[in-house]
């Protein structure tokens, strides 16, 4: 996001950062994360895995490279927790080195993992609420996506002003029944969620939200009695309780079979990049790599 040169920050900004660092138990955060933009539009929060440095480097070299978008309206960050196990100290050292160079990592001091995504989601929303509410939109995504930022900004700039305040969108799931097979990672016990279907919900890997909704969402999460590890389902329940309608965005593609049917340059987000090679390959297909020095 930035060069490997440290720049001073205003005292009031440092004070706010320190308050949020304490509140959210953060170990890494750059004071330049959100202030200073002339016309902020969307903050992209990439839910990163602590030990996946190669994926972060690939994202920086491809779709998050600011040569393809206006960095006065778009900013991105990687959000990650702590690596568990014997590699924890080493991974923290690598993250610190990346942070010192790029300043694009926010790390919180608790374990990371699939079943802990609700915590990561809550921290992401809290971070945006306290430090980045100057952005009208937050876009949360995962490290196995390719995001076409010019398409994303084009889409957001076409959202009418009267439709912005209640805007939540992405790949919409409707009438999805809870999985009751204990061997499945989406398994949810009957006593956790007894209903036959979930409320409509947006796939967590690529979701858009207007930041003005975040205070209400956080308050509803805090008082919710449903403790479910599926963070996108939980968000659907929260939004349903708040009476907020979710929108299906056609340019966000989650399912690989459907993704192959749509031209890459027409998509806002595409899922399924389990390795860096495939990300570089499709990035080159967009024909932006010559200006951005993306490497394979």
Automatic annotation (TrEMBL):
Record has Glycosyltransferase as a keyword: yes
Top-rank taxon, per record: Eukaryota
Presence of the UniProt keyword Protein transport in the record: no
Main location: Golgi
GO cellular component, one term: Golgi membrane
Molecular functions per Gene Ontology: hexosyltransferase activity
InterPro entries in the cross-refs: Glyco_trans_31
Protein's membrane topology: Single-pass type II membrane protein
Keywords: Glycosyltransferase, Golgi apparatus, Membrane, Signal-anchor, Transferase, Transmembrane, Transmembrane helix
EC number: 2.4.1.-
A Pfam family the protein falls into: Galactosyl_T
GO biological process, one term: protein O-linked glycosylation
Top-tier EC class: transferase
Compartments where located: Golgi apparatus membrane
Similarity comment text for this entry: Belongs to the glycosyltransferase 31 family.
Name of the protein this chain belongs to: Hexosyltransferase
């Amino acid at each position: 996001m930035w060069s490997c040169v440290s720049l001073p920050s205003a005292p009031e900004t440092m004070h706010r950062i320190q308050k949020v660092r304490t509140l959210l138990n953060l170990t890494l955060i750059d004071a330049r994360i959100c202030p200073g933009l002339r016309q902020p539009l969307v903050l992209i929060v990439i839910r990163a895995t602590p030990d996946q440095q190669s994926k972060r480097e690939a994202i920086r070299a491809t779709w998050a490279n600011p040569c393809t978008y206006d960095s006065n309206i778009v900013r991105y960050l990687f959000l990650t927790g702590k690596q568990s196990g014997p590699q924890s100290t080493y991974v923290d050292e690598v993250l610190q080195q990346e942070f010192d160079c790029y300043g694009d990592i926010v790390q919180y001091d608790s374990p990371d993992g699939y079943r802990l995504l609700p915590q990561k989601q809550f921290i992401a929303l809290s971070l945006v609420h306290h430090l980045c509410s100057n952005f009208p939109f937050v876009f949360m995504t995962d490290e196995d996506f390719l995001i076409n930022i010019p398409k994303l900004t084009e889409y957001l700039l076409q959202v009418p002003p009267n439709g912005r305040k209640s805007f939540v969108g992405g790949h919409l799931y409707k009438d999805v029944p809870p999985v009751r097979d204990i061997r499945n990672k989406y398994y949810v016990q009957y006593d956790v969620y007894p209903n036959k279907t979930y409320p409509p919900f947006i796939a967590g890997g690529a979701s858009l939200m207007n930041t003005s909704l975040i205070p209400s969402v956080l308050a509803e999460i805090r008082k919710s009695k449903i403790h479910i590890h599926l963070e996108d389902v939980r968000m659907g329940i929260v939004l349903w309780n708040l009476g907020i309608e979710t929108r299906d965005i056609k340019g966000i593609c989650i399912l690989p079979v459907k993704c192959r049917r749509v031209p890459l340059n027409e998509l806002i987000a595409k899922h399924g990049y389990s390795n860096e090679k495939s990300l570089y390959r499709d990035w080159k297909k967009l024909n932006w790599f010559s200006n951005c020095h993306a490497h394979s």
